[in-house]
Amino acid sequence: MALAVGLTLTALPAAAAGEVACPVDLPNCIVTVENRGSAGSTTGGTVSTGGSSGDARVCRLPYRDEVVDCYDDDWGWFSNVDSCYYRLRDPQPPANDIVWQGRHPEGAIYVVTCMDRISPGSNGGWTWLATPPNGYGAPSVTPAELAQRAVEQMALAGPAIGTTVDGGQLGLVGVPVWLWTQVTPTTWGPTTTTASVPGLAVTATAHAIQIAWDMGDGTSFVCTNPGTPYIAGEVHSPTCEHIYTWPSLNEPDEAYTVTGTTTWSVSWSGGGTSGTLTVTRTAQTSVRIGELQVLVSG
After folding, report:
1. pTM (predicted TM-score)
2. Distances in Å between the alpha carbon of 258 and those of 188, 221, 270?
3. Closest by alpha carbon to 78, among 59, 64, 65, 95?
4. Alpha-carbon distance 235 to 164, whole Å?
5. Burial of 197 by CB count in 10 Å (0-12 exposed, 13-18 middle, 19+ buried)?
6. Contacts with 283 (C-beta within 8 Å, 6 or more apart), sequence order
7. pLDDT tens digit string along 240-294?
8. pLDDT digits (tens, 9 = 90+) for 104-130
């Protein structure tokens, strides 16, 4: 492989093994580099990375025993073979440019940025490659890890709790308390988000499957629906309710703490694979319950 450097390189008195030394009076430097590695294929200068296996890469500078980013927005993809970053030159140089060495239209021209031992990122140039270098286009995370990022982007929440006892109202022992959540993309779903890194994209869709209610009086149960907002004139909720048997007078702030925990099912696909995640989110409110006293006289 030949490396045609189109920028100034540090002049060295002699080229040690694996280093680059260029005469300072030459505008271009042709250097033979061994052991460049290979991956993928090119056709007419267009890189084809093929399908992604989805395996996470670890990129490392061996002389520092230091982990570096496998992809950089400015420099491109890192190669563990030579500790250099590679980015496809866009646009490609003219066919008569010296960097092609008469090989056009075979292969492609890449911008190379090498992690020099003294000044990382200061050594590089343009190079012709018949095939993309080691690691080019490979994702730096697994599809499953990227699915987790998609979940974070969704901002899934616990239920936006609604009850028939809110706003300072007083509920009564023996009278059903309706329970529901506002139905939005982040409180019940469905919601879909795509997370991506260079070389890999994962699309995830989340929908709630149940809400586990802890009513604060020692009672817990599950509703597999978002509940039904209160219907004027009705007593019992058609979907989700609770009946308190004791007043909340002796509770902190004289109110029961109601906790709703939503379970989300997230299905995702990308990178030639797919999977599911289970996510829970919690929210709380409080209800005050009193007892109706009936005085019979006469």
Report:
1. 0.61
2. 18, 12, 39
3. 59
4. 10
5. middle
6. 157, 158, 159, 160, 161, 259, 260, 262
7. 999 999 999 999 999 999 999 999 999 999 988 899 999 999 999 999 999 876 5
8. 999 999 999 988 665 555 567 899 999
